[in-house]
Amino acid sequence: MEAKSEITNQERSALIRKMIIRFSLVPLFIGLCTLLPAGTFNYWQVYLYFSILVVPMIFVLFYFLKMDPKFLERRTKGTEKVKEQKLIQLINLPVFMAAFIIPGLDRRFGWSDVSLEVIIATDAVILGGYLIIFMVFRQNSYASRIVEIDQEHKVITTGLYSIVRHPMYFGVLIMYLPTPLALGSYWGLIPMALLPVSLVLRIANEEKVLNENLKGYNEYCLKTKYRLIPYIW
Question: pLDDT-based confidence at 213, cuts 50/70/90?
Answer without folding.
Answer: confident
